[in-house]
# Entry
Amino acid sequence: MLKFLAKRLSATVVVIALISVSVFMIFSFLPMDPAALTCGKACNPVVIAANRHRLGLDVSVPVQYGRFVKGLFVDRTWGEGAAKFSCPAPGFGYSFNRHECVTQLIQDAFPVTFSLAIGSFILWMLLGISLGIVAARKQGKWQDKFATAFVVAGVSLPVFVTALLTFIFGIKLRLINPIDMGRWVSPFSDPVGWLKTYYLPWIVLALFSSAAYTRFTRSNVIETSSEDYIRTARAKGLSERVILRKHTLRAALAPLLTIAGIDFAVLLGGAIFTETIFNLPGLGRLSIRAVQIDYDLPVILATTMLAATFVVVMNLVVDVLYAVLDPRVRVG
Amino acid sequence: MKPFLEVKNLFVSFPTEDGVVRASDDISFTVARGETLAVVGESGSGKSVTSLAVMGLHNRKSTNISGQAILNLPTGPVDTISAAPEVVRKLRGKAMAMIFQDPMSALHPYYTIGDQITEAWQLYNDGSKADGIKRAVELLDLVGIPSASKRVKEFPHQFSGGMRQRVMIAMALVNNPSLLIADEPTTALDVTIQSQILQLLRDMQKEFNMAVILITHDLGVVAEVADRVCVMYAGKIVEQSNIDEVYYRPDHPYTIGLLNSIPRVDSIEGRRLLAIPGQPPSLISLPPGCSFRPRCTFSSLVPNKRCAIDVPDLDEKNSAHFSRCFLTEPQLVQLRTPTGVQS
Amino acid sequence: MTEPVLKVEGLKKYFESTSGGAFSKKKVVVQAVDGIDLEVFPGQTLGLVGESGCGKTTVGRTILKLYEPTDGKIIFQGQDITRLSRKKMKPLRSQMQMIFQDPFASLNPRQTVGALIGSTFDIQEITPAGGVMKEVQRLMERVGLNPEHYNRYPHEFSGGQRQRIGVARAIALKPKLIVADEPVSALDVSIQAQVVNLLEDLQQEFDMAYLFVAHDLSVVQHISDRVVVMYLGKVMEEADKADLFSKPRHPYTKALLSAVPVPDPVKGRARERIILQGDLPSPVNPPSGCVFHTRCWKVQDKCHTDVPQLLELSPRHRVACHFPEPA
# Structure
């Protein structure tokens, strides 16, 4: 087991490193010049060259990458003399657009994304799985048909449509205030405020994701119900409720939990549409702004690597979890 | 002393899009404690359907069941067909137990066998999990699983096919059932393992004084373990008697045909198998009259083409030997040779 | 003395695979077939029996080069085909065919019966006199199917009928050897006899050799001329049918025969029953010495260490045992 974990962890590190290299390289091949974007109207070649030096873009790409990696472990400084400043380790660099250390930006944005992710995750799992179980048990009846319609709608509607519609209704019905949404509210200091901020975005994301889980649950439960060991359980004299809970669901939901883990990890990297539409200052909004508007390499690099790390680590967690659930997968 | 199980005029049918499938048609038999009844038939004969009805394992919404399946319990008789589902459920795993064909898939892959046996025990006994595991180890020992106290913590996939079937048997016996239904218990097993399991079933029957119904298509297995036999074809019982009668004095063309068509390890050199022509009928559209007539080589011996018009009753041709056929006893005697079954 | 259609010498087939769970992978070698010799003569049936893991199915498939042999020799009609490439094997395949066990899985559900049987001609680029369709219909009739059902799909037939389709496909090119791998095990009892009789009739008509692989000893006894008993990849005993079934000399054969239930209650009650203890060992980790020693009631020290050779103890009767049963 330990050998396995060690192998997987080292593979994880390699993947993340490769991703960082890829992002760096993509950036270096793009025709735009970050230095030219830094100075607005009062631009002339001298200022641009000075900025280029300040940004550290006047050295070769490998050196840039080397400095970046060093910044992950050691404090890094920019500029000279009076204009000197530094970002403590672990540092992903400095955002000249935002005048902030990237790590700080991430630290500010992450709680928002995490709140969004955790709430919608719980909501969509509860909704999706319960609906799926009902649909499976009432196969062919109206409950099942309703659940199927829900699935089709949920899967077909793009998330930004749902988000926009919800947002508009939210404004019209005065349920939300866009300005308030832009501030971070801590659930520990202001739980009600926190809930008020996030409940509509949660509903949007939950509607979007639960459809797929309804479908998975429904088909897994139907399939598991026809397995021989369920017939054995019935022959033993167990009640239908016990059979559903202990036998059917345990087998049917195990594969689902592993998919759910990955979905959650993806969401941790930032829900771009939802955050943008609801004006939530999370990682999604941070990254899309860095790409579309600011062309801010350090931020893009950081958010991409973070998102990748979440997924890769979760992959590992999910594999271990599956072995806990299904004894056949463990050491033979 | 009444036999433990009395099945009377049991009908089981399933309405489907293409028509009504008459899976079990007017089935009646009894089984006493300490006795083994074999229900023999091929696929589509209705042999499993009948037993599932006795156990109350059919989906009541999609199945039409009528008739009686009476368990003569010490507390009084209970008809599992007409009793409330909750009442029948509480008899399953206690008064009556069932084991199935494929031990590979009949156990839950995620729970240890100790847990699964304990679950069955705790359903009807007050006791802690530790007590349950103790009982499980006792039973695993009884059914011949070596190192029972170690293996009780293992998972089904860690057992071989034969061992898994032993586990199934242990689980079925945990609450001392009076009736055990074994549905093709050895069909999926190798022949040397099969003889171990059949021996085990015989021993367990004696140990627990159970009534046993053995469902199978294998006439060799039947000869080995059964006291009485019901031969089923297209949902009906076509012959019913004690074991020696059926094998040495079969009274139905289907039984005669089956016995003539199976190869035997101990048979005479050069005997050609006398195959029954044709195929079993669809249970949705049965032929008029006797269901076996299209394949019967002797229906011409019955006057007035009666076999194509009327369905024969299950008549007592000889003492305690029933057959559903219009042929008379003297005619049937002629169809078998004195030294065995040939025609 | 006629030449055998098929001669196999020292055939071995090992499979490599990985075992273990998600967290550790080990390379294991499954010794499915571990050195066997066979001979099948024209118009004769060699029965190959054994239980799970004995390797009989692997033997059948390796002989037809569906698997590449790990070691040994396969000589078909006097020609060594062991190392023959796929290209060179192709013309020979018309002479060696297979009938499979599962009538539901072995037919392509998207092809009509006519196409299924006819494809054998197309693959070998042979056009029978009168055309493919006529020949296919003739074959269908010969195996007991209605030739007018030429355009039907497999799912429209019963299990027994599907097996007949498989037989028609196998005999289409009049092969000299047919490997029948459990051809009747998946069929209902009353249908088994029909297919067995059909196979016997066809054998006589076309003078074909059969390698009949099965676990059902009753069927093997009926159809075979000579029988080979396998256990964990090795041959335990080999003899003419009458000899093997009346005077088995290997303890495994004896136990196997005594375990087969006979449809005869009085005989069954009177029979000496040898019940083997324990399970079939896994072919991944076969026992040392004699592979049967873990379950043999006659086991002695020698059996743990020395592999018994297959010796001819009486004419045409070979046994691999250190302490065979008396004649």
